[in-house]
Structure formats: C-alpha cells, structure tokens
Prior knowledge:
The chain contains 20 helices and 18 strands. It is an alpha+beta fold. It has a six-stranded mixed sheet with strand order 15-14-11-18-16-17, sandwiched between helices. A four-stranded antiparallel sheet has the order 4-5-3-6, sandwiched between helices. The longest helix is centred in the N-terminal third of the chain and has 33 residues, at about 45-75. The model is unreliable at about 70-80, about 235-265 and about 335-350 (pLDDT under 50).
Amino acid sequence: xxxxxxxxxxxxxxxxxxxxxxxxxxxxxxxxxxxxxxxxxxxxxxxxxxxxxxxxxxxxxxxxxxxxxxxxxxxxxxxxxxxxxxxxxxxxxxxxxxxxxxxxxxxxxxxxxxxxxxxxxxxxxxxxxxxxxxxxxxxxxxxxxxxxxxxxxxxxxxxxxxxxxxxxxxxxxxxxxxxxxxxxxxxxxxxxxxxxxxxxxxxxxxxxxxxxxxxxxxxxxxxxxxxxxxxxxxxxxxxxxxxxxxxxxxxxxxxxxxxxxxxxxxxxxxxxxxxxxxxxxxxxxxxxxxxxxxxxxxxxxxxxxxxxxxxxxxxxxxxxxxxxxxxxxxxxxxxxxxxxxxxxxxxxxxxxxxxxxxxxxxxxxxxxxxxxxxxxxxxxxxxxxxxxxxxxxxxxxxxxxxxxxxxxxxxxxxxxxxxxxxxxxxxxxxxxxxxxxxxxxxxxxxxxxxxxxxxxxxxxxxxxxxxxxxxxxxxxxxxxxxxxxxxxxxxxxxxxxxxxxxxxxxxxxxxxxxxxxxxxxxxxxxxxxxxxxxxxxxxxxxxxxxxxxxxxxxxxxxxxxxxxxxxxxxx
Length: 571
C-alpha cells in the first residue's frame, strides 16, 4: 500500500521517515550483511544499521507519546489542544539522540552522526513547525560534512563518499522536499555503484560498500516519505548475493581485507558511550588514533559515542575513563574469517558446548555475571535491548547451547524472539523467564556446564523460581499503585513487580520490604545497591537480618547505574 506523502519536513515526516527506514533496513539487512567486507568483513553492517535506526525510532515514538499525554492534560485545563504535537526540533533531536545512544558498529556510528548533523541545522532554525526543500538541502550538506569530520581517517569508496554525493546532488535540486530527497537518493545511488572503483577491496570482492548501501536504503525511505512511493528496490550491480546465502565475505574477503588494513590488524572492536567535555574528547581522539584504526567519535553536548578497532581493548576503555565516564561498553573479538585473520594464521575458534547469556541493568552486575562466566548485555535504565542485540549476544557467546536470562519481565517477548532467531542459526537455546537480576544470580549460582543441558536448565529454572525479588526505587510522577496513590519523589518498594510500600525514607521502605519478604521464610538475602543508594542502607539491612533472622545469610553487591536504588532477592 502506498505511503501517504508528507508535504513538508516536519515532526510527522521525521516519524514517518524513521519508520520507513527501519522497515526498509529490515528487508535489506541480510543482503547488506552479506556484502560487508570493509573495514571488517564481520557480516553485521546491515544488522548494525537496523539496530541504530531502531533506537532512533524508539526515541521519536517516545517524544510523540509524551506529547499525547501532555497535550491531553493541557487540553483539560484549556491551555492547548491535544492535536499539538512535537515540533520539528523535538522530533529530529530525539531521532539524533536515539541513534547516538543506540549506534552499533562503524556504519551505525557514522549514520548516527549523519542524523545528528541534520538535527543541528534543523534545530538551529528555531522552533519552526516545518522546513521546506531549502532547509532539507542544508541539513543533508551539514550531515555529510559532520560525518566526515567524525572519522579520524576518511576513506573514499565508503558511506562517507555516498553521503557527500547525496549532499552534492541535493545542492543542485530546486523545488520542494520531494525533489530534494529524490535528487539526494539518485546522487547517493550513483555514488554507491561507483564505490568498487574507489576501494580495491570492494572491487576484488565484487561488491559495493555495505554502509553506503545502507545509506541509500535510508534515503530511499526519505523519498517515500515525501512522495508516497518508494523509488524501487536498491539494486546492487556488483553484489552477487542470494538472500540468506553466502556473500563474498564468506569466500574471499578475509585475506584481501587484511591486506588493506595491514598484517593481522586489530583484534577487537570497542564501542562505548562517553560523558565528557569537548577538550577531553579531543585528547581521547589522539590517544585512540595511536592505539588502533577505524576510529569514529560522534556526538556532542557532553555525550559521545566512541568506536575504534584495537589490539588492546583495555587501553581503549582506560582512555575513555581518563576522558570522562564511559558506559554501555561493548568489546567484540573479531573471530576467524573476518578482515583481520587469514586462513593460515589462526585456526577457527571452536564453539564451546554451553554458555549463559544475561541481560543486566548495571555495570557492577555486568562484572559480577562476567566473573561467573556469563556473556552479558548491558541494559541502561529506560533503554531496553532489542531482539537483534540479544541475538548478537548469543552469537558472541559462540556456543552450541545457550541459556538466556532476560532478567526483566518486560523483555520476555523480546528474548523469546531472539531465542527463536538463534535457533534458526543452529544454536540450542533455553529461555529462563527471569524477571529480575537477582533471580538471574540465583540461576547462575547453580549452573553446571558439565550437566546434561535439560538438567542444567531445570536446575537453573528452579533456583530462579524459588527466588522472590523486590526493588526500591523513586517515583517519577504521581500515579495509582496497588498500595495507593504515590507522588513524584516518593520512595516505592515493589515486591514481585507490584508496589507494596510507599514511603519517604529509603532505609525504612527497604526494611519494610525485607521484613515482608522474609515473613514467608528464606535462607539467603541478596542485596544489589545502585549508584545512588547510600551504603548505610545495606549496613542497616544486614544488621536487621543478623538481629531478627538468625538462620539467614546476606550478600551485598554494587550494581552501578541500574535504575533502582536497591534490588533484593530472597532464596
């Protein structure tokens, strides 16, 4: 069915463009993954672009949802109608921020900067409801310029070349947004077809640039936003790929890409979000540039997304610590068959028999789970992982059998979708529906890889199910709860997902929650403190257990930025 065209580039057009881009990348993901040979033939460019745009979509939808709620409330007071949606600046700002925090891989990081470049131009134009063709032209030009500036050593024949060609073509277009978008798409597509002639590794592999293909796909969605019709499937003349089949990267890109990047090449991809000042980031760029290659640092206003390929992953993270506060750290080891190995240098890494993959809400818990042997996926408060991220975590575990711990009731369906996808790739996956990280800790404690898979899953499921879970948090707004009405700023105690206690003091609420949980019995109390919880809370609870529950042991962990002030588990 044809898309209803948008006349101007306004908030609704941003929303439409994001949704169409996500669907288009979903259809093209496998093809883009298959032609991914530069800078690393790791077959994930399409997936990384999809996940990046998925994060942008979520951010834009959140802005629209917030305006619907606020609009309704204001309409009741007569201030303005509920039809008043977000401004263009609101929408493009959310799109850029969502892409920044969700950027994956080299291609996703560059796409995030392209969107940020567009947002900078459009937000500087003031709180206008929309912009026309001239504004879109300026936005596309600044996007291409800012993306090129974010890459330490720009290479022609890549997504940067395609972005510049799109901006050049848009500059020469006259008319409305539809004409500008169509010109940008045609310019980008022509540049994409020419990429093998600019980058020898692409020509030898017989493919176009994967990141450039992804950008052309996104620009095709922009055309559809303004015309109501997609310009047709993005044909890739040099890509001899069957959907779901082996791409050129499987056959021959391995040694050829190693040639491009130097012998061996860096062994790790390191990505993290960073809270830091501009001056510190400038120093970080210089340090990381000396450590490795494929350096891309995007962002601004105190929040950055850092991407680099290095041999010393620890040094790359340390550099981030010196610059500011890194978090959502992802370190990926390039496996056999990627751009940094050859068929004779390193034997294929054998799959382990069994692994545990867990979603964890804070850095402290991530370290705890990792020490216990689990592959972890860090979920920041308010930023739940997508199913594609869970699938990637399962792949990183590199095991024949995987036990998946979502550790959040809201992630049950996402985790089920990820498990189903992993099964199609030949991995045996068991999903244990843990609703809290403390249940995951209990399950991990009884995990024995030497046992039969079914027996291990039953034991872990039983341990998780026997663990009651609670959390202490602060209410963000007034709302109705199972314990009555709470106000913004109230301390809430939730037991097994339901609000059971409302109070003003963290220690008092935590003590009441613990007493209620232990009234049904228990042998072990697990306390996980968030960054904002004072140590005195744990000290008081430990003392209470010693005094009132003589047969119960207590263990305390620091969870980091986990959202809740305190997580409690009782086994």
